[in-house]
Amino acid sequence: MMASSKLECTERWTFNFNTNMQALHTTSTSDLALSCQSVSKRYVRNSPFEKVNVSALEDISFEVNRGELFGIIGPDGAGKTTLFRILTTLLLADSGVVRVEGFDVVTDFRAIRNEVGYMPGRFSLYQDLTVEENLNVFAKVFNTSIEENYHLIEAIYKQLEPFKKRRAGKLSGGMKQKLALCCALIHKPRVLFLDEPTTGVDPVSRKEFWEMLKRLKAQQITILVSTPYMDEASLCDRIALLLQGRILKIDTPQNIVSQYPHELWSVSSDEMSKLLTDLRNIPAIRSGYSFGESHHITFKNKEWSMDALRAELEKLGHSSIVIKKIEASIEDCFMDLSPESKG
Amino acid sequence: MKQSLPTDIVLSAENLTKKFGSFTAVDSISFEVRKGEIFGFLGANGAGKTTAMRMLTGLSNASSGKGTVAGYDINTQSEQIKKTIGYMSQKFALYDDLKVWENIRLFAGIYGVPAKEIAPRTDRLLRQLDFEKERNTLVKSLPLGWKQKLAFSVAIFHEPSIVFLDEPTGGVDPAARRTFWEMIYQAADRGITVFVTTHYMDEAEYCNRVSIMVDGKIEALDTPGNLKKQFNAQSMDEVFHQLARKSTRKAD
Amino acid sequence: MKQFLVFIRKEYYHISRDTWTMVILLLLPIVMLVLFGFMMSTEVKNTKFAIYDPSRDVATQGITNKLAMSTYFSFSGYLDSPDQIEKVFRSGDIGLVVVFGERMYESMMHTGDAQLQLVADGSDPNTASTLTMYATSMIVQYQQELTGDLKIPYRITPEVKFLYNPTLKGSYNFVPGVMGMILMLICAMMTSVSIAREKELGTMEVLLVSPMRPVQIILSKVVPYFFISVINLATILLVSVFVLGMPINGSLCLLIFLSLLFIFVSLALGLLISSAVDKQMVALLVSALVLILPVMMLSGMMFPIENMPAVLRWLSELIPAKWYMIAIKKIMIQGLGFSSVIKEVAVLSAMALLLITASIKRFKYRLE
Questions:
Q1: Measured between CA atoms, how close is B34 to chain A, in angstroms?
Q2: By the 8 A CB rule, do B212 and B222 touch?
Q3: Does domain A2-257 have CATH number 3.40.50.300?
Q4: What is the pLDDT of residues C161-212, one digit of tens each?
Q5: All domains in chain B, ordered by first residue
Q6: Which residue of A has its CA nearest to C365?
Q7: The complex's ipTM?
Q8: A126 vs C206: CB contact, 8 Å cut-off?
């Protein structure tokens, strides 16, 4: 195992110089910040008791334009982190080609590492260093200084400034997230990779964070962001819905929503728990999911009218029934596209 | 809605306060939770949710104020409280390196389920969850959604009068999140009170009543419908934002 | 270069803010030296001895005095009968009992069949043999003084002489061992743990996706621990010379050169470990298992290598600390020069080269 991978590595090293030049040429003509073609990745979990071959990513292809805010939306375990690590040259894919700013992630990984900013899922900060020291270390790692690109982080850093002597480990989740973003931005990257920057952060901080991303987009920075929160999808220019290592769909949030193939109704009554069971027992109903204040349902065929459904539910003992025709949310689309809903 | 009798109250807090030095993490909160209710406990990071929950579950002592959980005093009877509640958090729920049945067995033992009952009840639980094939699977190789479902079932395995759920659905896919909430409904129908925190505002809509903490105080407490009316908002998300923006506490 | 300096400062912050670790790092050498140098030594000082003396003549008196006056023994009292011997050993504070025969002086001077018995507590065989050895040599010495010029031809006196360590000081053996162990421990364990910590925290991911070269990351990890090791080297030498009374008979420069070489080997070993493990806990255990145990067991610090089975002897050849200890003893105690430690220097250099190449080769540019 070890020996073979080392060999590969040396081969690629010698290859480096030639492709570098070619790559530079190709980038100047292209508007693509990133292209990912048929990337697959499998993990072999090897232990004395079991040998499991887990597929993390299967045939992932997408492209990101310069200056785009591209979202990768999917739950935990969908393969978001693996994908991000491949895109940031940290992992090698089993197959497929990835280019970031025209550079190949395998052969030109050094060039890419100079161009991109990366914020891993866990806010990777030095817990025992202060806010200021963290920022300084990361600035120097990228051969720059805080002053040089201060304009880029100014809006975010201003909020952190009162706590600049505080150790990073003692900050709240929202503050850590902001500091990590500053650290990833400090060298003015051309492409910014944010892996689940809003996980575990409260809704207010999340909203603030997305406003910051919008401002960064205005600075012509390409941003790739992953998130498990479906409601954040609408804030991206384009999104890829990822589930179990496969892309379900890539498009703008508006297009995805407008392409929802079914008529969607929201139904509520005074006994929500019973209502869901009752709705699912109606044979004509294709799917029924709870969405908090109401249940979203779709039909197998369009024989039912709202009045008919209302009558049926009243018969089952429900009162204050509200039925509305609604537009689908990304979450509706995601569930509709999931293989389980089809099977 | 049933008219609540005093005996119906499973959890109560009266001017509950927690101070760390000069910093008041939880500032004199008072509320009651009724039997069989799904109570949403919301708040921004650092609003004091975790601290309040620690006091209610008997993990830390209140600086002042009173509280009862399942009829026990949180200041003096924390050991009894720990026996009568269920607890599940996103960060720790089950042992990854134990098998499914071993986890059930372990937690049942910890919560004092009689040894004779554990085996038949384990079988029943696995049947209900449709997990019979996974009995001998290590928990770490289960998908996250399954894991959370199992963790919740384990947390209520000993039929507690109240179960505390700390961000139970973080990162779970949309379909699994809904099945999870259906399980919560079923538990509530059986009379188990559910006390839940979440960052998903749409989940707040599932709750019978919701409280929102800002800077250590409970700023709002009502049904989701009433809160939306009160704040003239379309969704709980808006309600939350209106309240949380008032926060002056930033970095903690 | 600036990158590098900032990084070293960052490491310095990490170390200095973790107060307990730093205290341990700086105090460990002293504590260990004191532990090994004093408490675990086989050295004998002021051991109480008792006498059963039925003769009570000039010879027995002389021997008793000679023992009592030495720094090794102090006289505790006379026993009335041999039955008491066991009792005094049980009481615990007596280390040696000297049992004289009848009419000692007369037999020594004339018949030559003087009888004398040394009884020591065999439950600690090392101490017991040291005690009897000292006592024997003193008794033989007294006998020679007494007989003086009178040559007694049929008598053979066995003479044991200890070269380089005439007083059999335990610290002579332990100090080089402790030096090897401490340096290995701090360099290798701390570097591997601190790299593993970055992997665990996820900061390594960010560093990898940066223009910083792995060699820079590695070197900036090594430098601060190198400095701590140098401080430790200084404290060890000071303590061993001024507290334990170790001599430095050879060249101090050579000693420092060898120590720096050994520190380098240890650091390289730590890096090699860190390239293989991802968790601090594992780094700690592996370091303990791979470094400390073999150093204690196989370097000749505690158990003589010559008495080991062949397999273990071969294994001991692979332990850097063994070569370091041999060289250090040659320099400090025997006072030999560079020419006599060439072999050790060569072996350590080869090890350093091999380890550093391996660890740089093995350092991963990616996460897998």
A1: 18
A2: no
A3: yes
A4: 444 444 545 556 677 887 888 888 888 888 888 888 888 888 888 888 888 8
A5: 36-49+78-244 (3.40.50.300)
A6: A90
A7: 0.75
A8: no
